[in-house]
């Protein structure tokens, strides 16, 4: 490859923003998760007592200022303050089944009769709830906290490391020195544009149809796609730099072997799969993965303890 990064900006000299290194899961997140799970074990009970916030109240319209309302069922949810029903929710609060009351819902004046009151009993966050979740080894709330951390801590750490690596790459792209071969870049973008154009067309999406509803020529569509690919070239050069520095080089033979393996796993012909990609796109993905792997290893030192 002719294009190269000739002087890499030393990302290790950067002060990593503290927020990028944050990964610990706060107790509040787990508490909210448990509260949401508790709702799944809620019980509904029809009651005859005084109506309060959180109840579901079914009313029958006795009289209305608008046609076709009389006899209709109306559901009210005191405390929710649903748009247009605030007055009705407030008025029904304190009533009992069988009582009538006047209220307004949006622009309609109504006389409603309370028909049924259903009260939701939400299960509290407790050891009994934890035991009902059916998670192996979880019988208490404390067990659930431990299980949640086991399930998510590693992923949160990886996301934080990835964010730091992304930050470093953006800074390197801005401050490093590159020697870009214009013809190589042009060919790289054009080749990718052709591959993407053909793949999209095979999938039923015609790049000649623009988002503005216009129809352009194939040549114009390829030019537009090639232009869109330009922003990926310098990052690709960076991925090549880090991968080759680490001694990782994807040869044509490696590429063909991987495509044959993928084709076998998918039950496809290697020749057909080969038409859907090329070594530069394959290399970009693998070099990108290798670059992030290297930078994320360094990023672990910047995670909060």
Element layout with pairings:
Blueprint: E1 4-7, H1 27-39, E2 43-47, E3 56-64, E4 73-76, H2 86-92, E5 100-105, E6 108-121, H3 127-132, H4 141-175, E7 177-179, H5 182-202, H6 218-229, H7 233-245, H8 252-266, H9 270-274, H10 279-299
Antiparallel strand pairs: 1-7, 2-6, 3-4, 3-6, 5-6
Short description:
By secondary structure, this protein is α+β, with helices and mostly antiparallel strands.
Walk me through this protein's architecture.
The protein has 305 residues and is an alpha+beta fold. It is built from 10 helices and 7 strands. It has helices spanning 27-39, 86-92, 127-132, 141-175, 182-202, 218-229, 233-245, 252-266, 270-274, 279-299, and strands spanning 4-7, 43-47, 56-64, 73-76, 100-105, 108-121, 177-179. Strands 2, 3, 4, 5 and 6 form a 5-stranded antiparallel sheet that branches. Strand 5 (100-105) and strand 6 (108-121) form a beta hairpin. It is elongated and about 85 Å long. The two termini are 41 Å apart. The relative contact order is 0.13.
């Amino acid at each position: 490859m002719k294009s190269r990064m000739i002087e890499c900006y030393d990302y290790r000299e950067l002060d990593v923003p503290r927020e990028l290194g944050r990964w610990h899961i706060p107790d509040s997140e787990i508490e909210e998760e448990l509260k949401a799970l508790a709702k799944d074990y809620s019980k509904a009970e029809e009651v005859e007592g005084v109506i309060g916030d959180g109840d579901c109240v079914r009313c029958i319209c006795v009289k209305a200022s608008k046609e076709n309302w009389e006899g209709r069922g109306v559901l009210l949810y005191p405390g929710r303050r649903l748009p247009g029903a605030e007055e009705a929710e407030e008025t029904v609060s304190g009533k009992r089944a069988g009582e009538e009351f006047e209220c307004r819902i949006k622009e309609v004046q109504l006389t409603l009769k309370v028909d049924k009151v259903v009260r939701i009993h939400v299960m509290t966050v407790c050891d009994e709830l934890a035991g009902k979740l059916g998670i192996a080894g979880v019988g208490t709330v404390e067990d659930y906290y431990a299980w949640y951390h086991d399930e998510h801590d590693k992923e949160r750490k990886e996301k934080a490391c990835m964010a730091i690596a992304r930050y470093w790459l953006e800074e390197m792209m801005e401050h490093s020195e590159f020697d870009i071969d214009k013809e190589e870049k042009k060919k790289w973008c054009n080749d990718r544009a052709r591959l993407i154009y053909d793949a999209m067309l095979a999938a039923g999406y015609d790049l000649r149809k623009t988002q503005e509803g216009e129809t352009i020529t194939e040549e114009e569509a390829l030019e537009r796609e090639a232009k869109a690919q330009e922003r990926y070239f310098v990052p690709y050069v960076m991925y090549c730099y880090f991968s080759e520095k680490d001694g990782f080089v994807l040869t044509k033979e490696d590429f063909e072997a991987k495509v044959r393996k993928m084709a076998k796993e998918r039950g496809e012909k290697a020749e057909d799969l080969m038409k859907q990609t090329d070594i530069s796109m394959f290399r970009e993905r693998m070099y990108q993965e290798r670059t992030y792997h290297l930078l994320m290893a360094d990023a672990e030192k910047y995670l909060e303890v």
